[in-house]
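Minutes, project huddle
Topic: does the predicted pose make sense with adenine bound?
PN asked that the exact inputs be recorded in the minutes so nobody has to dig through chat later. Recorded below.
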Amino acid sequence: MKRIVEPLVKWYRENRRELPWRNIDDPYRIWVSEIMLQQTRVEAVKPFYARFLEALPTVSHLANVEEDKLLKLWEGLGYYNRVRNMQKAAQQIMVEYNGEFPREYEKLRKLTGIGNYTAGAISSFAFGIPKPAVDGNVLRVISRITGSYDDIMKASTKTKVEEQLSEIIPIDAACDFNQGLIELGAIVCVPNGAPKCDICPLAHLCYAKQHGVQGELPVKSKAKARKIEKRTVFIFKDGENVAIRKRPSRGLLAGLYELPNIEGELSQEEALAYSRTIGLAPLRIKPLGEAKHIFSHVEWQMIGYSIRVDELEHSCTENMIFIHPDEVEKNYPIPAAFENYVKHVNVKIGQEKFEE
Ligand code: ADE
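Predicted holo structure (tokens), as shared on screen:
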């Protein structure tokens, strides 16, 4: 394994992509980028990253921002508990470390939401501390190089790889070594389709390449099948406003705002009947078709209706907010699951906002 260090570091220095979170040593910025990169692709992260840091340039800004504003900055990235945990960690850094990131792996590791990977990434990228940062990319690369058939979904496999890398990570190039493994996994030793072994600096050391088993490695057991939930989503609108509501503070999409929706697939008649049971007076109904959203443990299969009602404000018995769509787009974090429905009232959310 030790033989991978030199060619990997050299390759990374010559071939790395220039990305906004590289060549910086601000631990806060590195942290934000790493949490975002756990959610989505590099290209998708870029605009979120820029906007987040403009709004919240320091740990102190993050520690003190209102929750709705924070969630709005994360809208469309998913896994909203991660950003809530970031805020808790920021508050811990303010209280326990006077707003300065601790420069020790063990102390970073104790902050809320910071696991081995993130602690390793911050310590090595910001402070040059030789701790490994093992994510899915790195597990794939190392499984192929060493010819390991261990299941990468198991915690014990990750621990083993962390131990192997701890032994070889160079003390004078910890950042470039870790980033090199991540970069190699992202652009050469790719997951789907054939890896680009012809341009890999480690091909001559790689078990999978030598035995032609790149397609078999890594071994990754399947996650449990997702539960499927049918839901009916409503756009209730009068001449001006639409109805949204705040989700409970625990559970899926906690604290975000949503279009009213209920379990089950309602027919047009049932949808009209439901609107009456919550005190609304429907005037017209338009079906909005189907949409699907995949969360980590559940899949929503939705149908939607747009229902024009008389006097949204006055009669509704449910706890809802009646508000102009422009205001929704500006200030209320709405999860991407509703993207296909909110567009009917001209509200763009999440990723869509950055697309022209
Ligand atoms: N994925 C996870 N961390 C990354 C990084 N620092 N650069 C590019 N892709 C990444």
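Observations noted during the meeting:
- The chain has two domains: 2-216, 227-354.
- The first helix runs from residue 5 to 15.
No decisions taken; revisit at the next huddle.
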